[in-house]
Amino acid sequence: MIRYIIKRFLMMIPVLLAVSFVVYFLMDLAPGDIVGMMAPPDATEVEIEMMRKEMGLDGTLPERYFRYMKNLLKGDLGMSLSMKRPVIDIFFERFPATLKLAFGSIIVAMIISIPLGIAAATHHRSWLDGASMVTAMLGLSMPSFWLGLLLIILFSLKLGWLPSGGSDGFLSIILPAITLGAAQAGNLTRITRSSMLEVIRQDYLRTARAKGVSEKKVIYKHALKNALIPIITIFGSTLGNALGGAVAIETVFSWPGVGRLTVSAINSRDMTLATGCIIMFTIFFTLTMLLVDIAYAYVDPRIKAQYSK
Amino acid sequence: MKKDLVLNVKNLVVRYETEDGIVKAVNGLNLEIERGKAIGLVGETGAGKTTTALSLLRLIPEPPGVEECGLMELDGLDMLSLTPKELEKVRGKDISMIFQDPMTALNPVFTVGDQIAESIHLHEDVSYTEAQRRAIDMLELVGIPGERASDYPHQFSGGMKQRVVIAIALACRPKLLIADEPTTALDVTIQAQVLELMKNLRKKYQTSLIMITHDLGIVAEICDEVAVMYAGNIVEKGTLEDVFNRTKHPYTEGLFNSIPNIYDRKAMLTPIKGLMPDPTNLPEGCPFHPRCPYMDEDCKKPQTDRAISDTHFVRCSAYDRPGFHINRKEK
Amino acid sequence: MVKEKYTVGELKAFKKRSIASEVWRNYKKSPSAMAGLIVVCLLILVTIAAQVIYDYDTDIVQQDIMNRFKEPSLEHPFGTDHYGRDVMVRVLYGAKYSLSVGIVSVAISCFLGSSLGLIAGYYGGLVENIILRTCEIFMGIPSILLGIAIMSAFGQSLLVLMFAIGLVYVPMFARTARAAVLPVRDQEYIEAAKVSGVSDLRIIFTHVLPNAMSPIIVQVTMGVANGILTASSLSFLGLGVPVPAPEWGAMLSSGREYIRDYSYLTFFPGLAIMITVLAFNLMGDGLRDALDPKLKQ
Known about the structure:
The complex is a heterotrimer of chains A (309), B (331) and C (297). Chain B is an alpha/beta fold and 331 residues long. Chain B contains ten helices and twelve strands. Helices cover 29% and strands 23% of the residues of chain B. Chain C has one domain: Orthogonal Bundle (MetI-like fold). Chains in contact: A-B, A-C.
């Protein structure tokens, strides 16, 4: 198992390099000459060239990219133009907030979708099933930033129960987490339902019933553990969607995370900051997917057996 | 003389109400089993054997299933009046079942030890550790090394899985065990081993047995009595001797004629002509009459059980005709 | 009950019933799928009608400061915005952005992705490996961030937005197409076609592609829905279609600034996005169910 994990991590390195290169390349294409913007208006060509060298922005694209990655390994992503501080510091200041939001939303999504999916599957073709599926479909189709705005209108402006933005205290995470969670819940509910429907037909549930296991335990112990396996496989992409979706939601709720930071960096043409944020975000995203993959191997004994050989 | 009955079922009816019509799976079946006896429930696929077994555990899924019954007593306990909670206490404890396909009968995400221990823990007043210890004993009893208790089902072969299923079913020493074609899914050599194991364990625990099968050979080997099922009812029932040597029902005769004769290898097999009737649209009267070589008008009237002896009965109106007998000779 | 005798006419009708009409027969059975189809057709009609009826310069972007922030009324059913423009007219006109981004971007990703997937699945080996690894790299970047990066690299315009969203969804199509090809790759009739000298391209089109059609069709409708959502997110963040175009996401973004006092501004554009996405999702679900018997074969 340890060997499998190490192997997966080693295989991850070229992917991470390629991903960061794609991002670096794209952001490099973006218009806006940082040096030109920073240089004093009376600077000469030679002076500008000097500055470029100082900031590590001279040379061809591959040269610059490798210098960038070398610095990244040393924990240096350059200075933010708009904030006048190291990009890496700003990123790690903001990243916990994004993680908090992403995990909060997944908790919300699970609380909604797993019971709903199970109820829909165990009451297959009843009104409950129909209602759950309509709800899930609406969740899938609703732009999450719009849901966020609607929730702000209802709970902050009309009822005044919850703050509409910022991040002080537990209350302020409720609306953003529900908004982002609802977006994930649609998909999760559908997957829980279909996975549960598949498991409910299995013979081993009949064996459990014939043993005298209560119906509740048949569903929540014997069936659910099997039904959860496909749910865990998509947990990775759900977390990925949540991290991605956080970009818009953070903007709606003025949540001080990396998503909002990236958007405002791009809007203020602070490309060093934007590039750093996107690359770091992507690296964490990829690592998360890997961790989920490994966790999956732990849950399903069949997979675990495959790897331990 | 009053019989010591483990199971007494009167007028069992099970139907499935589906979009395509009402499937009449079991139609007024009566069944008595004496303590310690093994009865073979024989019939073609679709005769309602498995449905009968599930309805004895009261495990027919409702909807679409509907189970109606005049009387169902398990060792004197009225199964029809039990609440779902009480039924859970009976299942796995007093009555348990071995399923046809061991490949799918075990839960892939629990160890086999846990799956056996669960049954013991549910029904007997022991700690879970004690239940697990007894699960290991059960494994050894069915011929699997105890240390494999912590393995998962996918690590076992088909025959080993069926042994595990048997261990689960016998873990609480049930009064009645239902085995639903326990060897059909296994290789022939493994079949013999599993049958041998069941035979021994049954003797050891004094368990009554309903052996569902379409293999008359297995019945002859394991059972004391035979009940032949056709279209959701028992058409003939008696001791091995009664049914094998003094066959009365034309359908039973048809079954015997379609088995290869090892004394006369050149003899042609005579299959029963036609197909099982559509269970959504059963014929009037005796459901076998459209395929029966002895059919006459009376066969389209409702049928009743006719006692041949104390142990033997047949459900066939042809015996109203003076001097009627089937072609198969008594041995 | 199986009918035993058929008339000649009935038998002919059986033969004529093609796969498409079989799928349509299944599709018609689902009311939600039909609702989705009807809404999509209506949206297309609205888009065309809005182009004919309204003039971009005078009806859509021209400011009318005297009439700003009018609450919804008979005259302005959705109210007017901060420049006094009629929100309903803008929402109706804006359908064109969402629909065109959704459809064009999916056309791009479907063409590129399916081709790559077919090639990967058909040839296997190194080609397959390179294509799959490349897809993995692009899937490693959250789609909205990849969208942001592409938008900032090539500047904000409708065309770039289509291209960006199209590129984001290429890997999904590639994987879908490849997965559909794998089961037929080693079939003997493919081998037979190769031996008899049929060109690879022809084999792919006549033998391989038909097997991949069903999942690709489903992916297309779902892709349009996702594309519209991603595009409106980007516009909402100010990185999609530039103002003053009445793109629904962009309208939400500007309406958000007045949420405290004029919350109706944030209601209708979002509702329009949801209805559009919902319609495509319902169509996708319906198509998947209708195609399912074919998929299972």
